[in-house]
Design brief:
Blueprint: H1 2-28, H2 34-41, H3 73-91, H4 99-118, E1 123-129, E2 132-139, E3 144-154, H5 164-181, E4 188-195, H6 209-220, E5 223-231, E6 255-260, H7 264-276, E7 283-288, H8 299-304, E8 310-314, H9 336-354
Parallel strand pairs: 3-4, 3-5, 5-8, 6-7
Antiparallel strand pairs: 1-2, 2-4, 6-8
Helix pairs in contact: 3-5, 3-9, 4-5, 5-9, 7-9
């Protein structure tokens, strides 16, 4: 009797094992394979297709085929961090004030062109002078391609400065916009432009990259409906550090939208859309008379003086940063989490002005 019971139990045990063996594949479908495990672990660092800024890929060779799916926030932050370090640490001072800085200016233009191409955007260089080029990525609109929204950031630096905040931060945000917008269907054309020759001795002259660029557009015929200048957007402190601006409550924001009084309607629209992103970045509007001298040297003024609605997005530069135009304007001084969140909110502004549908979360 006991032997029969033992034999029955053994048979049931074997049948149970066979059933588990048949069910195991469906259970394993819910586990992570090796590739997925590696990908999950990489979320705390950077994607394999986007190596850090000290890698040779960032110095010329194109990276892997750009992804078409929306990037995760940690990818955006890491990409911005890598690009800021590329321009300010690996390349360094970028201008035409010395032979070394001039070589760096050319290296920066090459890197920007490569990064635009990595994002899948068509790229064109436009000559500013014998030593410098504007680098432009054009994302063509489908419904009204003859109308353009221009987003610009200068990539040259003040003499003696590696220019992390002014303006590697702006260029990195421009490149992040290229990655985000290249997969969207746009109504208007978006032109992303890295300007040269904006710092001294070119500042405020007819030889700046932004003025030369607008001359090109006016000859070619596209109508610019709006222009956004991204200028020094990486320093975030509770309030301006310089007297008497500590008394100005508007400037206690994280970023300011700065334009002349005639552009107030566009500033209000941009701020409303920016704030709707709920990126936890405080914004403020600052308007000024058209003839206000300190702001007439900024890139957006080249467009505003031609009657084009234009404004600057900035952390308020010299009012907020003690490192402005100094050798201490280095990559370690910037807040990359805030830079990433600002980039996400600014993307929504550009998408709104370009007339493309918002992506579902």
């Amino acid at each position: 009797m006991k032997a029969a019971n033992h034999e029955n139990e053994t048979r049931r045990s074997r049948e149970s094992e066979r059933r588990r063996g048949r069910e195991a594949p469906s259970e394993r479908e819910h586990t992570l394979g090796l590739d997925e495990t590696v990908d999950a672990a990489g979320r705390d660092s950077f994607p394999a297709s986007d190596p850090p800024c000290w890698s040779p890929t960032h110095l010329g060779a194109p990276a892997a085929t750009p992804r078409r799916d929306p990037e995760m926030f940690y990818d955006v932050v890491q990409r911005i961090r890598d690009d800021v370090r590329l321009f300010s640490e690996v390349i360094g001072e970028r201008n035409d004030r010395s032979s070394a800085a001039l070589r760096n200016l050319a290296r920066a233009a090459d890197a920007i062109e490569d990064r635009f191409r990595d994002a899948g955007a068509p790229v064109r260089r436009r000559r500013v002078d014998a030593a410098a080029w504007n680098v432009e990525a054009v994302l063509r609109g489908e419904r009204i391609p003859e109308e353009s929204v221009v987003v610009g950031a200068h990539y040259d630096t003040a003499r003696g400065s590696p220019g992390a905040d002014d303006n590697a931060s702006g260029v990195a945000m421009l490149l992040a916009l290229a990655h985000a917008l290249s997969s969207r269907r746009l109504h208007r054309t978006v032109r992303l432009v890295a300007f040269a020759a904006e710092e001294a001795p070119h500042t405020g002259t007819e030889a700046t990259g932004s003025r030369r660029y607008l001359e090109d557009l006016r000859r070619e015929g596209p109508r610019v409906t709006a222009m956004i200048d991204v200028e020094a957007v990486g320093v975030y402190v509770p309030e301006p550090r310089r007297w008497p601006f500590r008394l100005v409550r508007l400037l206690t924001s994280d970023v300011a939208f700065v334009g002349d009084r005639e552009t107030r309607w566009l500033l209000e629209r941009a701020k409303r859309v920016f704030d709707s992103a709920e990126a936890d970045v405080r914004s403020a509007i600052v308007t000024h008379p058209f003839f206000f001298t300190p702001l007439r040297v900024q890139s957006h003024h080249a467009f505003a003086r031609q009657g084009i609605p234009a404004f600057m997005v900035t952390d308020t530069g010299p009012l907020r940063s003690l490192d402005y135009h100094r050798a201490t304007d280095t990559a370690d001084r910037l807040d990359y989490d805030r830079l990433g969140r600002t980039s996400v909110a600014l993307l929504r502004v550009v998408a709104e002005l370009a007339g493309c549908a918002r992506e579902e979360p």
